[in-house]
Target: Bifunctional protein PutA
Amino acid sequence: RLKLLEDVHWRAEPTFPAAIAGEIAPITKPHDPAAVIGTRRDATAEEVEAAFTRAAAIQPGWDALGGEARALLLEEAADLFEAHAAEFLSLCQREAGKTLLDSVLELREAVDFLRYYAQGARQQFGAPTILPGPTGEENSLALHGRGVFATISPWNFPLAIFIGMASAALAAGNTVIAKPAEQTPLIAALAVKLCHEAGIPPEALQLLPGAGVVGQMITADPRLAGVAFTGSTDTARAINRALANRDGPIATLIAETGGQNAMIVDSSALPEQVVRDVLASSFQSAGQRCSALRVLYLQDDIVGPMLAMIRGGFEALHVGDPADLATDVGPVIDEDAKALLEAHVADCTARGLPVTRLPLPPETAKGCFVAPTIVELGSIRDLTREHFGPILHIVRFKAGELAQVVDDINAVGYGLTLGLHSRIAETRRFVQAHARVGNFYVNRNQIGAVVESQPFGGEGLSGTGPKAGGPHYLARFATERVMT
Ligand code: ADP
Model:
């Protein structure tokens, strides 16, 4: 059992002197809400205003630095993140309730984002591209930052998504006002502190902690050139409306939102792969990944043995303290999240659906734990919202119904991840051709982004694209200028 830096007491403060104190909120451990590990002081309207003034003033200079200089600064930040791994892993466990495995993956992804976008800054924001033209004419195209960008991030990847969006905006020559999720400002505060230590000017990356109301103040400012957002579909819509209602430049919105992710398993699938991948995709991170499997479609002629094996693995999951190395499933983020998930399970039970739940060990009683749950459903269409936690829904289908299954999955309107376990090439081609989904996983687990090799993001209700960690991401943060 690792206990790292338990005595460190953090405060997430806006990164500039406070004029008027905003709301002060305690930050607690999801697995032990009585344990206060730090405080969050919310940014005030005056501080938001001051942050924009500072960010707008320095942005032309930050842009003029050029891609190579910005790359060096982001790479220095990546080195500092690695050097502070122990603090980050400890904070991921304590503030976000992540297991050690998830914490390590999170830090790895954060560092990968910093290095990948640094490389992008170097390649795409260096010398202008020479364009063809008549002899004697010099035509070129250069990418520049758009201006002041806001990043509004969620608690489920409090480091990787937070720094991924911020580093992309910085790499492209924007200055950044970064609002972390209200549940996880401490990890963000450490990340920003290290970026400043790396040499990124404090005016170029400013932290504005707070709840949604701080996000509303930020997105109302006419100086905003764009927003990179990850969170719920409803909040993305609210931000879109806020941006449309302001004066000032037409702002870009890059949004990565919810999902209703399915996996289709036909009778040619290998059971041992299916069990491994279903459990990892549904229950790792307590199901709190954008990519997590929510609805498993099992072909009816294998449903008995396949379900028996899945249940076997399910019953072996260890739920508990994320600092315990034996833990597979930690807590959910907070009491509100727990209440929503429990209400859904209660509703399924009331509707007479077959529900299986893991008994929770006694030591989880005081924390925000939700028992891993399997529910049998008639169709993915029966779900009206995303259930962001350790709940797997099972739907049976018959051979010959594959087209209907894909139609049903498309009909929910999300388009984030889809998994398929099948050894039939024709099935794979059919699903790939017809599924409207951003990330399609074949004969493997569906489990989020791998920077550079598996860029991540959805379509439809799941977001605007482009994919984080992919080759087209940085350009969306930039404006193109042509010289002829
Ligand atoms: P989740 O369901 O993951 O908590 P949210 O969409 O509620 O997703 O939150 C994601 C981020 O959006 C958080 O940082 C939150 O504070 C912020 N947020 C919530 N409401 C608004 C809003 N109206 N305007 C801007 N940001 C908001």
Q: What stands out?
A: Confidence is low (pLDDT under 50) at residues 1-8.
